[in-house]
Specification:
Blueprint: H1 3-144
């Protein structure tokens, strides 16, 4: 081989080696980019998981709000029960007091009715006496000729 040809082949091989090195460098860059893409995909997966977790936290917040509302309702129910007991006690006292008053009124009414019956009986008796006297007076007047 000719030294010049050898040099050219060496130069040509050197160019090929340089091109292979450049290609290898590009492949290494692509691999690095692919690694970054994989990392981005992993990060994106983590972000999706975080979004799902945030949604669960929002649901928990909504549930907690409902629990707070239930607690408030339970307190309201407890207060209503206490008020109902107070009202029931007040009603019992009123029923007792009014029951006594009503009984006194009914007793008074019975006494009045009994007196009314007595007055009515006495009045009937007086009416009978007046009727009897009236008949006697008429008989006397008719005998005397006054009628």
């Amino acid at each position: 081989m000719i030294p010049n040809e050898s040099n050219q082949i060496l130069l040509y091989l050197q160019k090929i080696v340089n091109q292979i090195d450049a290609i290898q460098e590009k492949v290494n860059q692509i691999d690095a980019i692919q690694e970054k893409v994989n990392q981005i995909d992993a990060i994106q997966e983590k972000v999706s998981q975080i979004d799902a977790i945030q949604e669960k936290v929002n649901q928990i917040d909504a549930i907690q709000e409902k629990v707070n509302q239930i607690d408030s309702m339970q307190q309201d129910i407890k207060e209503l029960k206490q008020e109902t007991r107070k009202i029931s006690q007040s009603v019992a006292v009123l029923e007792h007091e009014h029951g006594e008053k009503i009984q006194a009124l009914l007793d008074g009414q019975i006494g009045i009715l009994e007196k009314l019956d007595l007055f009515e009986s006495t009045l009937n008796s007086h009416n009978n006496i007046l009727d009897n006297h009236s008949d006697r007076i008429w008989n006397l007047e008719s005998k005397l000729g006054i009628v």
